[in-house]
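Q: Got a minute? One more chain.
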Amino acid sequence: MKRVTDLLLNIRSVSDKIHQTEERAKTRGERFNIFSILGVNHYELAHSTIIAEFLNPDGSHGQGDIFLDEFLNEIFYSVSCRFRKPWVMKSGAPFDISSAKVYTEYDTGNGRIDILIRNEAGQAVIIENKLYAADQPEQLKRYAEFAERQNWDYSIVYLTLYGDEASTQSAEGIDYVRISYSDEIIKWLQRCICNTVDKPFLRETFIQYSNLVKKLTHRNMETKFTEEVIKAMVDNAEAAAMICSMQQKYREYVQDNILLPKLKEFADESGLQFAYDWEMNGEKGFYFRKKEWKNAAIWFYSENRTSWSGFYITIMNEYPDVPLTTNRQVQLHCFDGNCSDSYPFGWKYMEQGYSEWDMDTLADIVNGKFIEYVKEQTLAVINELEENSCFQKG
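A: Always. Here it is, folded:
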């Protein structure tokens, strides 16, 4: 046990240094990021729009196809290294960028392609951008069928935060390439930064977007601190192995013994009903509701069946599969996602990095920051719902 304690103390020392460095960076303005300010962080469409603009040879950057060329080269290199085969179109030919056009939200008649790169030779690169949302039914299969109907020579690229595989129901029998924000996108952005050293406005834009991606993928710790933590783990390998093996137990303990009691305490103090479910058909979340709201509830919810990510806040029935009955539907100001039949008052991803429940989130549950965030969001939603007299009374 002493080795475990020593390792944790060493890492705590590094953590303190990181916090001090972070504070100094803030005072120098180095943490200013226009993309974060505009709320880009967790919205797939926003990331698709930004990436597509960088890739577009006719984009406002005015640099022609240089960024598209770097992107395709990065995919080619990555796939060649990982899969021992070159990345090419279905026919085996490389993609010709000389007449390339880039589209976002390309309508297939049965869905939309996040980013589509096409040329006059009938070649197409289909990019499915997945930050947190779950795969739609047979999503990649439908893209492949659409490309076949168009007689395209195509390749499907599946982009996620960490290079995850597509679900079996989405991609069974489909040949596709996996790339990640944490690896290929960061490397591509670095290539773009190197290509714009004499163009300060463009260079700073790439730097800021790269910093955002590093933050989302937890790649923003300075190398010297990363090496210091790794060295401490190597010096205490058995203790490190024990700690790593207990991550799931740690998550369960924090959720069951800290998070849930604190949320229940808040609900009781506020006159709210509270419930949670971590395993509803692979989906997970918790909600607060007032008794007079009939079946409506404020959900903190994720549809992601494979990871603790994609958490958002919305108003749904306390039974998510049942439609919500309301006096009227209205877009709440506290939500930035548009209202729809599924979300009659809108929705938004949890902010402050809480849309992805990682070890940092667990730390904020322990120190109380996460609980305070949930309280603030819940009360803000309640106030706006009551101001608009949104629900039928039970």
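A: The chain has a mean pLDDT of 86.
Q: Perfect, thanks.
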